[in-house]
Design a protein that fits this description.
Blueprint: H1 3-29, H2 36-58, H3 62-80
Length: 92
């Protein structure tokens, strides 16, 4: 891989990861609002891109796919965890 095309791939991976993390946060913050559907669609699209980016990064050095896999995992956790305060004090 030429250095220019390698740099573009790395920049693309970084952009997908950063936008994906912001989209997962946006999905959480927009819960219950009128923007919830659009934020979820954006998140699912970027989640797919992050997954494909992780597969592309597997062909590169281990540092790239580890970072891509970690951001993919964080995206899923942020989008699925409920960070709201709960009044269920006796559950656990």
């Amino acid at each position: 891989m030429h250095s220019t095309s390698g740099s573009l791939v790395i920049a693309g991976l970084a952009a997908v990861q950063v936008f994906g993390l912001f989209a997962s946060l946006g999905t959480r913050l927009s819960a219950g609002s009128r923007f919830e559907g659009k934020c979820r669609c954006l998140f699912v699209a970027l989640l797919g891109l992050a997954g494909m980016g992780t597969l592309v990064a597997l062909a590169m050095t281990p540092a790239y796919w580890v970072v891509s896999g970690a951001s993919l995992s964080v995206m899923v956790l942020v989008a699925t965890c409920d960070f709201r305060r709960s009044d269920h004090s006796g559950v656990w």
